[in-house]
Every structure is written in structure tokens, then in C-alpha cells.
Design brief:
It comes from Spongiactinospora rosea. By secondary structure, the protein is an alpha/beta fold. Helix content is 45%, strand content 9%.
Amino acid sequence: MTGAYQREDLSIDQQLALSTAARRLREDFTGVFGTETIERFLHSSYEQFATKAAVANFLPLLAERFARQRLHALARVEGRSDSRPIVLFLCVHNAGRSQMALGFFAHLAGEHAVAWSGGSEFAVEINPAAVAVMAERGIDISSEFPKPWTEEIVRAADVVVTMGCGDACPVFPGKRYLDWEIDDPNGKSLDQVRPIRDEIEHRVRALLGDLGVPVPGPASAASASPPRG
């Protein structure tokens, strides 16, 4: 294996964790992809996070989650999955705007559509302010993690929504693109991030309506207010 790490350089625990991850992925994609493809995606995903992860023990889990997403994307590209609409939200760090959009989309769409997110220069962790303001709406994005995008993920998406990544955003001919001009929440207070969150929710609801996905009504004024005390 070439790149940022060699498999033999991994600790015993990391090797065992990756072996377990590979087994779970093989079980999930039985009859869809072979062992070689699954392990290639798992280890290339590991390599993408290896230079940024703050806690090395989490690397196998991040790699497994990202590899699973990439394999689902590849299955879609190759016509081996269902036809639910897929939306990809892209920003610079994949730590604020795109994560909030992903959170709203998944919460509102349920099983009717699929959403992914990524960043051109993905960060180490999710913006805590974004996590906090989404929690005020009853949506937990604390378990999400910044990630890059890959070719198969972009190719699998029906709609690509860009938010501030400019020329770094991938462009594929024939793909539907939407550019949302939304402020970056990085470095902003909770009071400053709440209007960004609300704008994202409004746009996500409109997009779901455009895709023909049924969504529940907007939150009441009481439930939308930040907690007191």
C-alpha cells in the first residue's frame, strides 16, 4: 500500500479494527462487491483520514463509515441500488453549512431520499456551534464527521449543492448543480449561527419539495426558539 501509511506500520489494535471493519463491509455488500474492492475502498478511506485524525483510535471507524458511503455510491453508479434521489452537500471544511444541510435533509426526508456531504479541505471536527444550534431543533449531528468527496460519490448524486467551495467544487457534465450563497458559521457565535441554520432549513425544505419528497411542516415558533436559562 502506498501513500501516507503502510499497513505494516499500523498497531495490532488498528489492524484488528480494520479487519473487523472489512468483515462488516463484506457482510453488508455480499453479492455486490468482492473482497478486493471492499478492502481497497476501506484502506484508501483510512489513508484519507490518517493525516488529519486527532485520535488515531477512531481512524478505523471513520474509514469504515466513509468506505461504506463510497461503496453505496459506487453501487448506485453501476446501477446496483435503489432509485431514491441522492443529494450531495459540499462546502470548504464540511464542518458547518454542509453538515447542517445534511442534518436537516436526513431528518426531514427520512427514508424517501439520501444525502451525503463533503469538503474541499475537510476539517478535523464538526463546528461545535453548528452542533449546538441543530440540537435546538432536535437534530443531533454530533456523531457526524468532516470528510472529503470522491469521484464515485459525486457521480452517484442526482443533485450537488455547493456552499462556498468555489472552483474547488467538482464539476461533472450533465450533473445538476445548485450554488447556495450562505455565510460560513466558522468563528461565529450561536446568535450569529442561528440565522444561517434557519436559511439552510428553508433551502433544504424547498429542495425536498422540488424533488417531490414529502416533508413535515416547519417547527413551531416555540420549538424553534433557543433554550432559556
